[in-house]
Write a structure and sequence with these properties.
- The structure is a single chain.
- This protein is of the alpha+beta class.
- The chain has seven helices and seven strands, in the order αββαααβββαααββ.
- The strands form two sheets. Strands 1, 2, 5, 6 and 7 form a five-stranded mixed sheet that branches. It has a two-stranded antiparallel ribbon with strand order 3-4.
- The protein is globular, with a radius of gyration of 21 Å.
């Protein structure tokens, strides 16, 4: 839709944004609103190149460097995923990690994927962990949710259809693709808000400057 601070602010506060960083068979996910800059792997690895390009005016040099940086970020993510799986499978104490593993653990602690139990020294995964083998179960749960909300979604689309010609964006000849994308985010976002309020799913906690979001790992 036509860009405005009012519309952008409204969309950003809805639960309709999923960030996924996949490396091999491990997926780092965060899901929530867009009301800030999340401290997750996906955003962090993409904020650094943007900061470089905005802070240093040699654009072609920045692009060449960022191409190399992407490769190193992928290596870091692979090593992080290996450490996550190792901690999940074997109880690991921070003191037992080698120097390289400690650096990775510190990075993951800062990103809130891990925490260190100061009483016993063990590292714990601080977000929900899902298995790739559980995807079928998750899809079936999704089907149950879709059946439950389908009448409300259909009603919303019918109302939109009846009032389509009254939309300001239509009058201003905004592309139907942009309108559809925005409407989808609105409907998807409000549906997720409904699921949160009905306590069907967990409530994302608000973090100052980051917005509301939940993190998880799929292995």
């Amino acid at each position: 839709m036509k860009k405005s601070e009012k519309i952008e602010c409204h969309s950003n506060k809805l639960l309709c944004s999923s960030n996924n960083y996949r490396v091999d068979d491990v997926l780092f996910n965060s899901f929530g609103d867009g009301n800030g800059f999340r401290k997750d792997i996906y955003r962090y690895f993409r904020m650094i190149p943007k900061s470089i390009d905005e802070g240093i005016k040699f654009h072609s040099l920045n692009i060449a460097y960022m191409d190399i940086l992407d490769d190193f970020n992928n290596i870091i993510a692979k090593e992080c995923s290996s450490l996550i799986k190792n901690i999940f499978t074997n109880n690991r104490k921070y003191v037992d990690l080698n120097n390289k593993e400690r650096k990775l653990a510190n990075f993951l602690i800062e990103l809130n994927y891990l925490n260190l139990d100061k009483d016993n020294g063990y590292l714990n995964i601080d977000v929900p962990v899902f298995f790739n083998s559980e995807r079928d179960i998750i899809h079936r749960i999704g089907e149950i949710i879709l059946l439950d909300i389908l009448p409300y979604v259909e009603k919303t689309f019918m109302e939109l259809k009846r009032n389509m010609d009254k939309l300001t964006s239509i009058k201003h000849e905004v592309s139907i693709k942009d309108i559809g994308n925005e409407l989808w985010h609105q409907i998807f976002g409000y549906t997720n808000e409904y699921l949160v309020k009905s306590e069907f799913v967990a409530t994302p906690k608000f973090k100052e400057g980051e917005g509301r979001y939940l993190q998880s790992i799929v292995i």
